Amino acid sequence: MTQKSGAIVGGAEEFVEYLREGPLAVVRLNRPDRLNALSEPMKDRLGELFEQLGRDDSVRAVLLCAAGPAFCASGDITTMGNFTVASARDRIKRAHRMILGLANMEKPVVVAVRGAVAGIGWSLAMACDVIYASDTAYFSQVFKNVGLAPDGGGVYFLAQNLGVLKAKELVLSGRKLSASEALGLGLVARVSPDAVLEQEAKALAEKLAAGPTYAYGVGKKMFKQISTPSLESFLDAEAWAQSTALMSHDHVEGVRAFLEKRKPQFKGC
Questions:
Q1: Cis omega before residue 229 (within 30°)?
Q2: Average pLDDT for residues 156-180, to the nearest whole number?
Q3: Which residues of 214-227 are buried (b: 16+ CB within 10 A; e: fewer)?
Q4: Using CA atoms in the order 139, 132, 217, 42, what is the torsion angle rounded to 10 degrees?
């Protein structure tokens, strides 16, 4: 049985698609003209959807993917640069709801990524259980380009998977990792030719959807217990840090430089 449920949120260019195929739920980012950069309405929709799927016992696995040549080129920079304390805090809470809804889901989540997997798009991927990457995929902590600290739990997930020193190098440099380097570091489970990426990721998701869902959920809870601090505690600290960064001169300058297609002139404040 296949059921399709789509929702256009915040205008025709901002779209999150949801498809049910029996016990498998497929969530697709569908804003390819903007490389699936996440707008605030998209974050709201994803947060609501992940919470809904987590509560729905008929859903036994989730596949997250994206339309077009990129998985997600971070957040929508065109909406950044003019924050108040309240609007900065609201923006971060929206992102955290999305990440927690995904990371805390008590059923397997597979993500298929290609092209740009950047900023909060990379955080979104790391909140999933299994990452399948196209050979076109590249990963980057681009936050520093617009004068921000990582968000969406990026530091938490990178430090868990790589250790602190390597995670720092990736965050501070913002450099691009190829799919093959990400595989070598253990940041993805498999690298596939782009033409078969979603087919292979879906095959795994379908297999997991036919598995022992309750045992998977318990197993995921066990993995959570080895993390100190918890993701929730870390995100509380992240909200404070990023709220401060969103109000900085360097963030405003970073956004202006991006939109004006020039190198930013950061002042360190």
A1: yes
A2: 96
A3: eebbeebeeeeeee
A4: 60
Closest by CA position to 250, among listed 53, 81, 3: 81
Lookup: tokens for 206: 């379908």
Tokens representing 168 are: 């720092």
As given in the structure block, the two tokens for residue 26 are: 């497929």
The one-letter code for the residue type at 189 is A
Stated pTM of the model: 0.88
Cα(172)–Cα(113) distance, rounded to whole angstroms?
A: 23
Number of other CB atoms surrounding residue 242 within 10 Å: 24
DSSP string, 142-176: GGGGGT----TTHHHHHHHHH-HHHHHHHHHH-PP
The confidence score (pLDDT) of residue 4 equals 52
- Put the strands of the sheet holding 177-178 in their side by side order: 72-73, 116-118, 138-140, 177-178
